[in-house]
Amino acid sequence: MTTGGPSFDNQTIRMVVHSSVGGSGARITLSNRYSSAPLDVGEMDVAVQADGGEATRGTIRNVTFAGSRHPTIPAGAEAVSDVVPIPVRAGENLLVSLYVPGATGMSTWHSDAFDTTYIASGNHTGDDSATAFGTTTTSWYYLAGLDVLSSTARGTVVAFGDSITDGYHSSTGTYTRWPDFLARRLGAGPGPQRLSVVDAGIGGNRVLTDVPNLWQGVSALKRFRHDALGQPGVKDVILFEGINDIGNNAGPDGRPLTAQDLVAGYRTLIDQAHAAHVHVIGATLMPDEGNGYYTPAAEAIRQSVNRWIRTSGTFDGVIDFDRTMRDPANPAALNPAYDSGDHIHPNDAGMKAMADAIDLRLLHS
């Protein structure tokens, strides 16, 4: 979640959430972490999605927080709901409908959801139909997480990164981000599914510094403990971030970036994870020749950082996205078969290739 979202007033926000694992109940996390005013929840419910913003008849369940259907979440805080008794299948979509009765001020949001959100005037939380929801966006508002109570899953893998992890240029509403493909691989293995997947990517995000565009988030150094280590059941974090630091030449304290700066940032995050008894798997940074980020100096930093990721032994494991995704004829560029067209973000086929490159034995269940 980040700051800088739009304000709402007497509106219902119906959002789609895609589950990576099945279970018998769910909890919803609402975040007011990056807002300056309290959030008054008029009403909230969850249902199984039928199609678009339409709920499957008979599946709507009220959501309560410590028994209350009308909580107020202070500025800077989050609230986790009581368990909602609703069956959830792996790969199934739920609709979370949030009614805000008054003016919210700037919302806490996730700008690039790559899914459709439906907005209506007034309170339409109990509607099976989507008729009242006349406006759509592709962002989530206040909705920070879905926890599924599973009888088989024993832990969570957090995919932590920037726009490539967030799913930029993947097809909207098709769940073709690389963490989605990873979740499907984990579910397709022999025996019951042991691991769920959380996507903690933010478009434009950097390791070392906050991004001037508010919706691209505070630095990984600031958000890692909450966004990665704070996830329920976290066992492993796949750390795949740094290309925005390199492409913007954004070193600490406003100075030019060095490879050593980025390595120091990685070491800090690894130390935080190990202190929390969480494994960190490092992913090499993918090529971007042809994109505006590319310069010979930036490429030298990327190559140096990737060498350190591969050879230092500091990470608990390594995923070599660079080797998987580069053009065999030009290793400084993405493979054209995987290029969405901007020479830095993969297309859907590229997202699948990334997930397929992950050795599942690296993950701890």
Which helices and strands appear, and what pairs or packs with what?
Layout: E1 2-5, E2 11-18, E3 25-31, E4 39-40, E5 43-51, E6 54-55, E7 61-62, E8 72-73, E9 78-80, E10 93-100, E11 107-110, E12 117-121, E13 135-137, E14 140-141, E15 143-149, E16 155-161, H1 163-166, H2 178-188, E17 195-201, H3 220-227, E18 234-240, H4 243-247, H5 259-275, E19 279-283, H6 296-311, E20 317-319, H7 321-325, E21 326-327, E22 330-334, H8 348-356
Parallel strand pairs: 16-17, 16-18, 18-19, 19-20
Antiparallel strand pairs: 1-11, 2-10, 2-12, 3-9, 3-15, 4-8, 5-6, 5-7, 5-10, 11-14, 12-13, 21-22
Helix pairs in contact: 2-8, 3-5, 5-6
Model description:
One of its GO terms (molecular function) is hydrolase activity. Keywords: Hydrolase. It holds the Pfam family Lipase_GDSL_2. Residues 159-353 form the SGNH hydrolase-type esterase domain. This is SGNH/GDSL hydrolase family protein. The protein is α+β, with helices and mostly antiparallel strands and 365 residues long. It has 2 domains: 2-146; 152-362, SGNH hydrolase (Rossmann fold, 3-Layer(aba) Sandwich). The protein is 21% helix and 28% strand. The protein contains 8 helices and 22 strands. The chain has helices at residues 163-166, 178-188, 220-227, 243-247, 259-275, 296-311, 321-325, 348-356; strands spanning 2-5, 11-18, 25-31, 39-40, 43-51, 54-55, 61-62, 72-73, 78-80, 93-100, 107-110, 117-121, 135-137, 140-141, 143-149, 155-161, 195-201, 234-240, 279-283, 317-319, 326-327, 330-334. The strands form 6 sheets. Strands 2, 5, 6, 7, 10, 12 and 13 form a 7-stranded antiparallel beta sheet that branches. A hairpin with a 2-residue loop joins strand 5 (43-51) and strand 6 (54-55). The chain is globular and about 55 Å long. The two termini are 27 Å apart.
